[in-house]
Design a protein that fits this description.
The protein is of the alpha/beta class. The chain contains 12 helices and 13 strands. It has helices at 3-8, 45-55, 69-75, 80-89, 92-102, 118-123, 126-129, 149-160, 229-236, 247-256, 277-290, 295-307; strands spanning 14-18, 39-40, 43-44, 60-65, 106-111, 134-137, 141-143, 163-169, 179-185, 199-207, 218-226, 262-266, 271-273. The N and C termini lie far apart (53 Å). It binds uridine 5'-triphosphate.
């Protein structure tokens, strides 16, 4: 960690990553495996997320796991048998790759007994987090490496306190898939945090608004920096949209209060939603094309494939 990062994260040291959802959109693949363990090229999605937290200086990582916790725990733990086999073969590249995963962060796990919703999953982090601000990274939401979104959000928290959400503009016909924010310019009209990521004040939030009712096109994506005040609200929260305890509902209460501001960092960089099948496939293609080892061959195959004009059978 360099000195600048250390300063930015002085008050936020912990990352919480919920991975206890049912992943129904990926059934039957997710019957016995969390969707966050599905491979994106040759790493599970969750590894990219832990790498992002560690790069932002958050090396204390709490996973909120569900019934399939084994696979997630094992991935970040030593595998002496495998390491021994790779060492014996002299396969140092793969041995390094396997060992590097275990050194990314200090991993902790807590079980969410039942998948009662994202808000409930976050509440499960309370005893580990204590009375400190903390980051939440959704385990199926990837942010392009080097985008620095989390670092910017930590900076906003350090400057303004309260909680911070990441917002992305989406097409009006997609707002019903997200939590949507009603926003005002932060600190008065015309003020912006920086040219690339304007900062806004969130004044209201709605989880998955019905078509045509979204307060804006600003969708909440899977990165949060939360004030511990959120725990008290989650504890009292009633099931909301879809019968689940929604984080959005607790954040809305914070946004309505005067003493806990909720800011939004507007993000326009690269984000990959690996919880949705079509988006998952696009993620793999895009990231594989960028890989120095696989990219050149894969791109040339892909170009031929597209040129050949493949259609669905019978299409
Ligand atoms: P999603 O709503 O995208 O995940 O939750 P899901 O419910 O697993 O997916 P589908 O819709 O059935 O396919 C966002 C994140 O919150 C976690 C999920 O694992 C995912 O990373 N989550 C959700 C929990 O940890 N617990 C929950 O009760 C719900």
């Amino acid at each position: 960690m360099n000195a600048t990062t250390a300063t930015l994260t002085a008050t936020v040291t912990k990352a919480v990553i919920p991975v206890a959802g049912l992943g129904t959109r990926f059934l039957p693949a997710t019957k016995a495996t969390p969707k966050e363990m599905l491979p994106v090229v040759d790493k599970p999605a969750i590894q990219y997320v832990v790498e992002e937290a560690a790069a932002a200086g958050l090396e204390d990582v709490l996973m909120i796991t569900g019934r399939n916790k084994r696979a997630v725990e094992d991935h970040f733990d030593n595998n002496t048998e495998l390491e021994h086999a790779l060492a014996t073969k002299g396969d140092t590249a793969r041995l390094d790759a396997v060992r590097r995963v275990t050194r990314l962060a200090h991993m902790h796990h807590v079980r969410q007994g039942e998948p009662l919703g994202l808000g409930h999953a976050v509440l499960c982090a309370r005893s580990h987090v204590g009375d400190e601000p903390f980051a939440v990274l959704l385990g199926d939401d990837l942010i392009g490496p080097g985008e620095g979104l989390l670092e910017r959000m930590l900076r906003v928290r350090a400057r303004y306190g309260g909680s911070v959400v990441a917002l992305m503009e989406v097409a009006p016909d997609r707002t019903h898939l997200y939590g949507c924010a009603k926003v005002e310019p932060a600190g008065g009209a015309g003020s912006a945090y920086d040219a690339h990521d304007p900062l806004v004040r969130v004044v209201d939030l709605v989880e998955k608004p019905a078509h045509g009712t979204a307060p804006s096109n600003y969708a909440v994506i899977g990165r949060y920096v939360l004030d511990p005040a959120v725990f008290g609200l989650l504890e009292k929260a009633q099931p909301g949209h879809g019968g689940e305890i929604q984080l959005t509902d607790a954040l809305r209460e914070l946004a309505h209060s005067d003493d806990h501001p909720v800011h939004g960092v507007v993000f326009s960089g690269r984000r990959f939603d690996t919880g949705d099948r079509a988006s998952y496939l696009r993620t793999i293609v895009e990231l594989a094309c960028e890989r120095p080892d696989l990219g050149p061959d894969f791109r040339s195959w892909l170009t031929d494939f597209v040129r050949a004009g493949h259609e669905a059978p019978g299409g």
